[in-house]
Amino acid sequence: MTELKAQLSKQFATVSMILGVVSLIFCWLIYISLICGGLAIVFALISKGKELKLKPAAKVGCALGLLGIIAGVILTVISFIIIIHQFGSIDAFMESYRQLFDTYLAQLQQQ
């Protein structure tokens, strides 16, 4: 029974590390970054069980998950700052995008 728990704990630590890597790689996609980063932290904590310390893979997974979440939030905030700086507001950006889309659609219809 304890061998099974040890194996499950090791697998949870590995899953945590994989999700942490995915969170960091896809930090520019905020939803994937938040979900995978959060799950990486949760799986790292689950892998701990009743032990006092996290396994090395769980530590890496937890750290990468946290970095992925932080990077995703920072990139999102920077994106909004750039949009507001260039267009003045989100509404002006959406209007500009709509005009660009209408122009592109008209060109497609002419062909």
Structural account:
It is elongated and about 70 Å long. The chain is mainly α and 111 residues long. Helices cover 86% and strands 0% of the residues. The chain starts with a helix and ends with a helix. It has helices at residues 2-25, 30-48, 56-87, 90-110. Helix 1 runs antiparallel to helix 2 and helix 1 (2-25) packs parallel to helix 3. It contains 4 helices and no strands.
Oligomeric state of the chains? single chain
Unreliable segments (pLDDT under 50, ≥5 consecutive)? none
Residue-averaged pLDDT, rounded?
92
Describe the main β-sheet briefly.
none
What is the 3D form?
Answer: elongated
| Sheet/helix structural class | mainly alpha
Q: How widely separated are the two ends?
A: 69 Å
How many H/I helices? 4
* CA radius of gyration: 21 Å
- Percent helix, as a range, is over 70%
Q: How many β-strand stretches?
A: 0
Q: Topology as H/E string?
A: HHHH
Quote the beta fraction: under 5%
Comma- or semicolon-separated keywords:
single chain, 111 residues, mainly alpha, 86% helix
Quick summary:
With 111 residues, this protein is mainly α.
Question: SSE layout and pairings?
Answer:
Layout: H1 2-25, H2 30-48, H3 56-87, H4 90-110
Helix pairs in contact: 1-2, 1-3, 2-3, 3-4
